[in-house]
Design a protein that fits this description.
The protein has 353 residues and is mainly α. The protein has 17 helices and two strands. Helix 1 crosses helix 10.
């Protein structure tokens, strides 16, 4: 157990501040703050209350889905179905005439069931990439069956709280940040969280240490499904309707945010809390390009450049992360070791002894 606690400490966003030991969360937070300050100084439209409100509305869905994705990637897995789950959530919200409480319950139940299905497939031996690719198609098909095209009517008693704004801060943004912080605490301070990093670091050692590997993975994918469903509800606050395809870009965006935040794609290292500055940086990029009137397709190029530069910076600081780490390992092979000889694997090995 002490070795697992050491693993959790290594995943914390707190740490040394020398260049070689710079934690990804510190680095990406610093970059995001500098970017916001520069944007505020150079762009008057960026400083407008309306734009700030729009930026925070934009961040809320990605914060939620990226946090869930970060949990799955920490296990050395991946969830490609989150975008389709978000679309399905918006469709369910817009196609139901029930009360807000019932709609939220239905959406969360569907998210939980979808995530649990992914987890059951993974623990039974299906590769996470293949499993979630299949459920991505299933969720998208169900969304199209429920609502064939964008539209529907979101119940007013649901839409009103989703669009509530305090000053210029949307309620959905505050709830999203709160949910991310709670999830971070769960990964950093609970037995499940410590097992999460041990399983991601080296599943074989985690099994020999008699850690609940299957239960840990089931919870991880269930969390991802529920957070994707919550992200879909947050997205309703932006589009005011249901759309069976609106969540498609979020699968890639959530992975990008997690990797920029320092989550190692080989598993066992990172901090869920770091997705907050990572999402801020991505949303800031989109926002500034929109204000500048740049064609929307350039936003994808900008995100790719940011991802590459960030991972290069981690590598230069002696902290290989994300896709750079993937080149040395790969996605977790269900039922075996991730192939990463990282510190988390060592911690799990220590627990076994």
């Amino acid at each position: 157990m002490s070795a697992l606690r050491a693993t959790a400490r290594r995943s914390s966003p707190l740490g040394t501040t020398t260049l070689a030991g710079l934690k990804p969360a510190f680095f990406i937070t610093l970059v995001s703050i500098v970017a916001v300050v520069i944007a505020a100084i150079m762009s008057e439209p960026f400083r407008s209350p309306t734009n700030v409100e729009s930026l925070l509305f934009q961040m809320a869905p990605l914060l939620l889905v990226a946090a869930g994705q970060a949990v799955v990637i920490t296990t050395a897995g991946i969830d490609l179905s989150v975008g389709s789950m978000m679309s399905l959530a918006t469709v369910l919200a817009a196609a139901s005439s029930s009360s807000a409480a019932l709609v939220i319950a239905i959406v969360l139940a569907v998210g939980l069931a979808g995530g649990l299905g992914n987890g059951l497939g993974v623990v039974s031996g299906v590769n996470p990439l293949v499993m979630t690719l299949g459920t991505m198609a299933i969720f998208r098909g169900v969304a199209l069956l429920v609502l064939g095209q964008p539209g529907g009517i979101v119940p007013p008693d649901l839409l009103t709280p989703l669009t509530t704004v305090f000053g210029n801060v949307p309620l959905t943004f505050l709830l999203a940040v709160g949910a991310v912080v709670l999830l971070w605490l769960a990964t950093a301070e609970t037995r499940w969280g410590r097992a999460l990093f041990a399983v991601g670091g080296d599943e074989g050692h985690a099994r020999r240490a008699r850690l609940p590997v299957k239960r840990t993975l089931l919870i991880a994918y269930s969390v991802s499904g529920m957070f994707a469903a919550l992200a879909g509800l947050a997205l309703v606050a932006r589009i005011y309707s249901g759309d069976p395809n609106v969540g498609d870009p979020f699968a890639l965006d959530s992975i990008t945010a997690a990797l920029i935040g320092g989550i190692a794609v080989t598993g066992g290292r990172g901090s869920v809390l770091a997705v907050i500055p990572a999402v801020l940086l991505l949303a800031l990029t989109d926002n500034l390009l929109n204000l500048a009137g740049v064609f929307s397709y350039w936003q994808y190029i900008a995100k790719g450049v940011i991802l590459i530069l960030t991972l290069w910076a981690y590598h230069a600081a002696g902290r290989p992360s994300g896709l750079l780490a993937m080149a040395r390992g790969g996605w977790r092979k269900p039922g075996g070791s991730s192939g990463a000889a990282g510190s988390s694997g060592s911690a799990a090995k220590g627990a076994a002894s």
